[in-house]
Write a structure and sequence with these properties.
- It is a single chain.
- This protein is of the alpha/beta class and 602 residues long.
- A 9-stranded mixed beta sheet has the order 5-4-3-6-10-12-11-13-16, with helices on both faces. Strands 7-9-8 form a 3-stranded antiparallel beta sheet.
- The chain has 3 domains: 160 residues, Up-down Bundle (Ferritin), CATH 1.20.1260; 258 residues, Rossmann fold (3-Layer(aba) Sandwich); 82 residues.
- The chain has 22 helices and 16 strands.
């Protein structure tokens, strides 16, 4: 199922991006309208599902079932769609719309498919206060044939066959691809999912007020909603989401992202959303959870305005006496995140790596912060986790209600060498890797039952499979696949290649799962925390003081010894040179044969 969804995501993106390349639109022009069409497709899918539920118990009069109304959908927390805003209506409009006599409810003529989609977006906004003024109405910039092709791409029947929150996944996939493509935006509106999931996994939200004061496209809300819903609760009744996002474009993406995942929230944008100068919802001291990926190393923040806006319990960072500006705002953000928490609140955020041991005023603020006992976990993240930046970062976690035994301790995790390579420029944590990192936190907190639950999930997934058996099975399958493809009739080759690849992918997934199980259990066995050289260490506040209040994990966990692979270097180099000579000899023979064949053709 996962493979099918990944294939669907890739195919839809490839088709949509080919259309963009065929138009004269830039990625930034194309992004919002395409994502809004995905939203509309989601809204229609949910509309049809809820409509079917309503009609099952709908009364009838004179043999006719009473028509559904907007109020019926509101009662089920779903969006009502007037006929002209329903996706199948738009897909099936005639080619020559100007001659179809279509009009808006105000009597305005609809002369193109672009105008019809604009009108659909207007009608959707009228059904949702949260979406008012958010959806794009710029579809007349598309040629009708291109827009029609886009509508048909997202009308893919496989979306309904796969079911679940597949459109939400596709929306996030497109969002991540646009973040990479829209270079002019520096990807600031999208935090990679694995970083967000790590924040959510450590905070483990259940209920209450959540704030993201630099919310971008809303990934923190979406992953929090998923976490709460997965735990068997309802995110919209358990959580209250608040966001501030200075860039209006990003705030629109956020509201659409939340809507496509069925979440409600309050998002403010523009000048009043500038968190340096405004606490837009007056939430200082009131939040159960704070999550954010704020912009790093912002300069020229007006110190007097920032001080007047409050939320600075540890004072201002360094200020230029002449300009009265703050030269680096990282510790403004860090102070805000702590100040927003109530007396049992938790915060998790992404921060520039340099902030963990920066000097001068930053160091003074960090000392005061450490001495509160609220710093809970610090995680170092390696390069290439962002779509447009290769720099490393850190994940910080605060907890104002830490377990008593951890009150004067901090868990440090150095995960810079623990990741999966996606491509040459991008790394991520897989689901199992995320759960392994979360497991270290569980053991630090004494929550061995959660660690045991993870081991049970591994064993259910793997059965008797080990790394060695998975490797052997994969090796055998590759040999069988090669033989099957070579022996296949020409007309069957593509089908057999696809079948063999699916089998190989499944075996590679099992092998990776077995490796992650081995990685975890070799270090922590059946559930006993211990400091692991190069990976994790629990340090006391006294130890942190001895290191000048540095919060850099590498300063505490040390460096793991390089493993001896048992290979003699000089012997291996001799083998490599011999292999290279053999390959060169074969290449020369092949070249001679090619030249001879070429001569024979003359």
């Amino acid at each position: 199922m996962i493979t099918n969804i990944k294939k669907l995501e890739a195919e839809l993106w490839e088709s949509a991006d080919l259309l963009r390349q065929g138009s004269k639109l830039t990625s930034s022009q194309y992004c919002m309208p395409v994502l809004a069409l995905l939203f509309l497709r989601y809204a229609f899918s949910r509309f049809k599902m809820v409509e079917a539920e309503i009609l099952q118990s709908r009364p009838s009069r004179g043999g006719r079932v009473m028509p559904v109304e907007a109020s019926d959908f509101a009662a089920k927390s779903a969006l009502f769609l007037p006929r002209e805003a329903q996706y199948d209506y738009l897909v099936n409009l005639p080619a020559n719309i100007a001659d179809a006599g279509l009009k808006t409810k105000d009597g305005q003529d609809i002369n193109s498919l672009g105008e019809a989609v604009n009108y659909a977006m207007q009608l959707v906004e009228e059904q949702s206060e949260q979406l008012t003024g958010v959806l794009p109405k710029s579809y007349t910039m598309f040629a009708d044939d291109l827009l029609g092709d886009l509508l048909r791409i997202f009308n893919n029947q496989t979306i309904d066959e796969v079911g679940g929150d597949v459109i939400g996944r596709i929306y996030e996939y497109f969002l991540s691809k646009f973040a990479k493509a829209v270079a002019s935006d520096d990807g600031v509106f999208f935090t990679p999912k694995s970083l967000v999931k790590m924040l959510v996994n450590v905070l483990e939200p259940t209920s209450g007020i959540m704030l993201d004061p630099a919310c971008g496209s809303g990934g923190m809300f979406v992953q929090t909603g998923d976490f709460v819903n997965h735990a068997g609760m309802n995110a919209n009744t358990q959580m209250t989401f608040y966001g501030q996002e200075k860039v209006e474009y990003n705030a629109q993406l956020c509201l659409m992202n939340m809507a496509v995942h069925g979440l409600n929230g309050k998002i403010v944008s523009g000048d009043e959303a500038n968190s340096f100068y405004h606490d837009a919802y007056n939430l200082a001291g009131k939040c159960d959870y704070v999550m954010a990926n704020p912009p790093f190393n912002v300069d020229k923040v007006k110190s007097e305005s920032a001080w007047a806006a409050g939320r600075l319990p540890f004072g201002l960072p360094g200020v230029n006496a002449k300009s009265k500006e703050i030269g680096n705002a990282n510790y403004l953000w860090i102070s805000y995140f702590h100040a927003y928490l109530n007396d049992h609140g938790r915060a998790g955020f992404v921060m520039a790596s340099s902030a963990t041991d920066s000097a001068n005023k930053d160091r003074d603020i960090r000392e005061k912060l450490v001495r509160t006992g609220d710093v809970d976990v610090m995680v170092s993240v390696g390069n290439n986790f962002f779509y447009t930046l290769s720099l490393p970062c850190s994940l910080w976690f605060f907890d104002k209600a830490k377990h008593a035994e951890n009150r004067d301790k901090v868990l440090f995790i150095d995960a810079r060498n623990y990741y999966t390579v996606v491509d040459r420029t991008l790394n991520e944590w897989t689901e199992w890797q995320l759960r392994n990192l979360q497991a270290i936190v569980h053991l630090y907190r004494g929550e061995t039952d959660k660690y045991q639950a993870l081991l049970a999930d591994y064993r259910t997934e793997l059965g008797d499979i080990t790394v060695e058996s998975a490797q052997a099975a994969l090796y055998k399958q590759k040999a069988e696949a090669k033989e099957a493809i070579n022996n296949a009739a020409r007309k069957d080759k593509k089908r057999i290649e696809a079948e063999m690849k699916a089998l190989q992918d499944a075996l590679e997934d099992k092998l990776e799962t077995a490796r992650q199980y081995e990685w975890l259990t070799e270090k922590f066995g059946e559930g006993e925390y211990k400091d692991v050289l190069g990976l994790c260490k629990i340090a006391t506040i006294q130890e942190i003081e001895e290191k000048n209040y540095s919060l850099t994990p590498g300063a505490y966990v040390g460096v793991a010894e390089a493993e001896d692979d048992g290979v003699d270097f000089h012997e291996r180099m001799t083998e490599i040179h011999a292999e290279l000579k053999r390959l060169n000899d074969e290449a020369n023979v092949l070249m001679d044969e090619i030249l001879k064949s070429w001569e024979d053709l003359k």
